[in-house]
Amino acid sequence: MSKVADKLSKTLRLKQRVATRAILWKIPHNTRQDDVRLKIGRYKISPDATQGDEPECLDPKSELTLDKEEFDAMLAFLRDNYEPFRQGVKAFIPLEQPFARDTATQIKALFALPERASVVKFIVDNELIGEDLADGLRQASRAKAVREFEQMLGEDSVEQRWQKWFQENDWVLGSEFVRILDERSIDTANISDFLMEAYDGFLDIVEIKRPGGGLKFWSGALDHGNPVPSADLIKAITQATRYIFELEQEANSAKFRTRMGGVRTVKPRCILIFGRSSSWSPEECEAYRILNSGYHNVSIMTYDHVLARAKRILGMGAP
Prior knowledge:
Elements: E1 2-4, E2 7-14, E3 18-27, E4 35-44, E5 54-55, E6 63-66, H1 68-86, H2 101-111, H3 116-125, H4 131-155, H5 159-168, E7 177-180, E8 194-198, E9 203-208, H6 231-249, H7 254-259, E10 270-273, H8 282-293, E11 298-301, H9 303-314
Parallel strand pairs: 9-10, 10-11
Antiparallel strand pairs: 1-2, 2-3, 3-4, 4-5, 4-6, 7-8, 8-9
Helix pairs in contact: 4-9
């Protein structure tokens, strides 16, 4: 290897008539970092040592010069890919850049494998995710869901979208529920939004109505100076109590219990999620408390109550 001024030349391969060479040279700058370039080429070996190198081929020219940006990109490419590629690895995560976009793509590909149970078992068996990281991921996922909840409130989303959100985020319904059952039908005429297994192993109901769409929680007129439920809310409460009644009719049905995956039906209760409360007056807040106390098997929550509880669970503060 020889060094001439700001050039560094290396013969990579030497044949009888052709030499493959790599040449580095530096272009100095006063206002920024020096520019280092790379030239790679195949050259004819001239018997006359005074003649310069002539490319072996002129069309196309067997010589390529990379400027600094191209050279840096090539170095990064070789550093990150050569060894895994040499070993036959098709997809890998470079530890030198664990948070790069390409790394996220590889991790997504892993978690997108159809064998989800095998992926989870692999992660658990090899302790790839520690308890602290798992808690952080769960917290971040739930915080993202809360932000989506707030966005949906602003968009006046339809009921089907709310059903999907609650299906994916049943944690927000509280610790009294273990899981959402796959079955929603009580009978052919009554289909609830969610049938739930409570923590005590019995069957309960969650019924939701979209928070907007013209549905009002309170009637526009007062009764003896007191806020009273709207006709929409009365209809929703009536529907919830009908579901409870129909569930009780099925309590002793072995066929129904089989459909429910063995979950028993004893004195079912219903949570009804209806309307908004962020703009309630103190009188309306008080009337809500009184209204809820009048039902022993129906509990009414507004979407703002759900949002506030979700934020308290996550330590995000009040909405």
